[in-house]
Amino acid sequence: MLPEHTDVLVVGAGPTGLAVAVTLAGHGVATTVVDRLPEPPVTSRAAVVHAGTLEVLDRIGIAEPLAERGLRSGRFTVRDRDRVLATVPFDRLPSRYPYALLISQAETEAVLAARLTALGGRVLRPYELTDLDLDGAGATARFAGGDTVRARWVVGADGMHSRVRELAGIGFGGPADPGESFLLADVRVDSVLPRDQVNLFLSRGGPLVWAPLPDGTVRLVATVDDAPREPHPRHFQALLDERGPARRPDRVTGMAWASRFRIHHRIADSYRAGPVLLAGDAAHVHSPAGGQGMNLGLRDAVALGDALAAGPEALDRYAADRRPLAEEVLGFAAGLTRLAAAPPPLRPLRNLLLRTASALPPVRQALAVRLAGFEPTPPSPPPSSIVRLRPPSGPLSAVLPGPEVHDRRGGSGSGPPEGLATGG
Question: Over the Cα atoms of the chain, what is R_g?
Fold first, then answer.
């Protein structure tokens, strides 16, 4: 049952919304989390959590349980069929998590939900937002069925088609083209490719991502001109035959699930409209190339949770700081997609440049840091500025002590988390 009042209403219980709620719970802020779906989805697009993001998640007690469940990939390899064009190692990252953690979004959500439960919170389902009245003191949210909630702040973490963003009147700019079409599947495959690295195959038809998962399946993601309504294993076998290894081809032996989706490169005109704040896909969407989408959303979430606990001035900084970071990630993802789809006359030059550049240790390290998603360190607010908007009440009233906080040098403590150089 929904409460009548709450300090923060989080709409959307995907990774971003859950991470906002966990961060707020650690600060002792009363938070209500709602989602329109009756149950959490068991399939998902995202399949990697990068080192920079793990550093951020460590501050809210999430990194270690995630690391226990995931598969640790020590390098990222760029290929043109059988030819290795670039290998980017992660073992020298400035992090206690020198790898890319391969783990499904569903597992990431499960870890976040468990942490939220441990802190006294829960997700209320199914509640679909239908209206939002904003005023100087907050917002009144209305839901299908007639329930209303009065909130001081509303967080839109409800995805690309965000109802919160729409009701708040925030534009979602981007090109008018139909967007990029993708196929995605978790398949069982006979392959000679190592099971401890992510491979990006560059092809005239577009990129193909090959990423092993902890359950033994392989996540395949590829751009296609026209994705079939109901993808079958033969579609992914055809993609591997066209873009994957040639001398010893992969063979698809089964498929756990598959989907198609279309992505537009877009970013919200603003991350804030009065008492409404946006994070994750509600604020930015882009190509999955480089595995940056969910990671950027998770970093948004922790930054927003800290800002909500710190007060209005911090919220202005959140809105001003996060949008340029999203613009940079959008440009990076678009660049990877263009690189993959270089026309045949330019492919020899592209391949030569990649091989030459990746042979230089400083370039390899710069690429590793960029893929890992490290961001500039934000200024840390003084402890006195971390205030509760009201005494805890509602779903997070039984708040336990905040998670232990670690820095990357191995120190620990409690209280407000320190800023970390983090990242996508």
Answer: 21
